[in-house]
Known about the structure:
Layout: E1 2-3, H1 10-15, E2 24-27, E3 37-43, H2 49-60, E4 63-67, H3 73-82, H4 84-101, H5 106-126, H6 131-138, H7 144-153, H8 157-177
Parallel strand pairs: 1-2, 3-4
Antiparallel strand pairs: 2-3
Helix pairs in contact: 3-8, 4-5
Amino acid sequence: FLSIIAGKKINFIKENLQNPHQIIRAMPNMPAFVEKGITCLVSNNLTTKKNIIIARKLFKSVGKIIWSDRESDIDKVTAISGSGPAYFFLFLEYLIFEAVRLGLKKKVAEELVYQTAYGSIDLLLKSNKSAKELRKRIAVKGGTTEAAINIFEKKLQFKKIIGQALNAAYNRSKMLGNN
């Protein structure tokens, strides 16, 4: 039995099936629609190696996979990568909004923001540098990027907001699993 039902734990599935079953629970994310997703998988101890291989192949066809030994990781994965695309979309939405407020046409703002996001992720994935290292290369002392980053990091508010948001998503995922 393969489940992509958010919040429904293996025990819930097991209790609703008449006989013992091999159960694999998966948490894919939306970029799977364009074969760029990432899926976290976990299985019960009845699941055969053959079925684990089948599940791997299935989800590798829509992106990368991570196999976890702990089902509790699914709630964490939900908060990070399950919900993650929406966080990026919100940030892009706000960048576009503010670019238009600065006086750019919406189409121009969208092209600038989308290509910047795409190119930045491609650069990160192809370089041997961390996100932090690349950020620091751009945010030179006294420059425009440093001025913006200083606002994001003022009193660690940006980091704190991200932490609060991820914890809200994580706690909600755990709560859904208890229903």
